[in-house]
Every structure is written in structure tokens, then in C-alpha cells.
Amino acid sequence: MCLRIPRVLYLVDASVFIFRAWFSVPVEFADRDGNPVNAVHGFARFLGDLLEREAPAHVAVAFDESLETSYRNEIYPAYKANREPAPAELKCQFGLCRELVRALGVVEFGSSRYEADDIIGTLTLRARAEGMPVTIASRDKDLTQLVGSQDTYWDAVADVRYGYDDIAERFGVIPERMADFLALMGDAVDNIPGVPGVGRKTAATLLKHYDTLPGVFDNLAAIPKLKFRNAAFVAQSLQEHREAAFLSRQLTGIACDMPLAAGPGDLARRAPDLAELDEFYERLGFGRLLREQARRIARGCPAT
């Protein structure tokens, strides 16, 4: 096991970095049979750099398995229904990315019923119960709702880190209010309805005054008296779209109690399996740089 003091659990939102690699690495990057492996290559570079530079003793990678079978689809069938399915040339690369993660000595998780956010949320709460800080590597603002006083939200693409006290300045509200904030605004990308006429500033103002989504609806009569533009219209819109707001809140909240047979102690990083990685990189036609990096990672993280 790699030694690192203090112990920090790194949790990686894989899809963010795989999709980024898909769009940033030329699709002509293919294995020797002509199959595209551009997303795998970009993800391998990202994850290798994380393991080498951060040297986490405990780390896990969370994958999304489906856009159609989440428990959120049972609540709201239109959830994410507006998204185009991943192209076949990308879809086939997700399995390779999971194979890569395991060969690098890192635990990976996926679920057909729960999303990567829920995996990260569940592991975050289990780590917190053991006094272990968490660093969440993502670009998805939804995950900021998980950040506690000792945790870090890391935009690993921009290489910018946000602690608990930074979240409100960057995203609009403190972490505890983020799920309510997103429910009020809605999200066109995920097809979450929200409340018409409520944007970022209005949602932040409402939650500053009333703390929570139920608090906002308990004070509808007072909202027209608040000093922000179109306050009376917003109060009326809230009244008319109450059901949509509370439905949205079921979708924006992260499930931190999913059934997952793992805790922080199960996430200790192992040394990479160099023979397996050599075979993997050879099969995909990757060059020597990733092989050399794997050996540096192995030297810094000896097997127990």
C-alpha cells in the first residue's frame, strides 16, 4: 500500500474525463485493427498523471453504466431522455477504460441503477464517518453538494481546487444548498424541469433567505416583497410549478446510501500490474510513454 499522510480518499468521476478525451484526442487514434481508442488513450494519460503526481494511497473510479436504467428514470422517465446515446465508437471504449483502471491497481465501480455521482456520494459519506477527507475529481457541479469542511472539489481539467468555503463564491450557494439550488433552476442538459423564471441569481437569493426548497415554499407570500427583479412573477411561478420543483429535487439530490460492498479500507491502491498493462498497451497500439509512466507509478507504490 502507498503511504500518504494525511490519508485522503480520491474519487474520480470517470465519464467527465473520458468524454473530454473523446472530443480532444483525434478519432483517427486507433488500435492496430482500426478500432478507435482515442478516449482510452486520453483517459490513460489523465489517470496516469493523477496517480503519479498525487500519489493517493486510497482511490476509486466511478463509472456511469446507463442513461436509461437509473432509479431517477423510475421517478421521471424523461430524465436525460434528451441526450443522444454515446456513439458506438465511444461506447466500446468504456469497457477498455475500466480494464485500464484495474490494471493500474485502482478499484472501479459502476451500477445500472445508480449513477457515478451516487457511487461517489456513498463512498464520501463512508469516508467521512471514518474521519478521512475526500478529494472529488470532476467537472460536474452536482458533486459540489458532497463537499464537507475537510474535503476538496478538484476540477482536474483546469487544475483548480475548491474547498468548502470556496463553493458558494464559485457556484452560487454553499454545498448543503446545492441540490435545492439545482432543483429550482432546472437543468436542460439532464432534462430536469425546475421552475420557469428562476435562474442562478434568483435561486441563490431565495435560498439565502429561506435556506431550503421547503423553506422557499413555506414563504411564498413573502417572496413578492423581496428586493429582486420580477419577485412577484417568481412567486407566482413557484406556486404554479411546486410539483415540478419537488420532483426536480428528487433528481438533483445524490443518493449517498446506495448498496455498495466497499468502504475506505477497501480502496487502498495497489501497484500496477505491469505485465497486464504492457499487454493492454500493446493490444491498443499505445507507445512507450504510458509504459514508462506505469513503471514510475509502480516504483512509487510497491505492492504489499
Task: Supply database-style keywords.
Rossmann fold, disordered N terminus, six-stranded mixed sheet, elongated, 304 residues, alpha/beta, 2 domains, DNA polymerase, domain 1
Rounded to the nearest angstrom, the distance between the terminal CA atoms is: 6 Å
Query: What's the SSE pattern?
Result: EHHEHHEHEEEHHHHHHHH
Shape: elongated
Report the average pLDDT across residues.
Answer: 93
* Radius of gyration from the alpha-carbon trace, in angstroms: 21 Å
Portion in strands: 5-15%
CATH class bucket of the largest domain: Alpha Beta
At CATH level 2, the architecture of the largest domain is 3-Layer(aba) Sandwich
Instruction: Give unreliable regions as ranges.
Output: 1-5
Write out the strand line-up for the largest beta sheet, numbering strands in chain order: 3-2-1-4-5-6
- Total number of strands: 6
The named CATH superfamily of the largest domain: 5'-nuclease
Provide an overview of this structure.
Helix 1 crosses helix 2. The longest helix is centred in the first third of the chain and has 17 residues, at 38-54. Residues 1-5 have low confidence and may be disordered. The chain is of the alpha/beta class and 304 residues long. The N and C termini lie close together (6 Å). It contains 13 helices and six strands. The protein has helices spanning 14-24, 38-54, 71-75, 88-103, 116-129, 164-171, 178-185, 200-210, 213-218, 231-240, 242-252, 274-284, 288-300; strands at 9-13, 58-64, 107-111, 134-137, 152-155, 160-163. A six-stranded mixed beta sheet has the order 3-2-1-4-5-6, sandwiched between helices. It folds into two domains: 9-173 and 255-300, 3-Layer(aba) Sandwich (Rossmann fold), CATH 3.40.50; 175-252, DNA polymerase, domain 1 (Orthogonal Bundle), CATH 1.10.150.
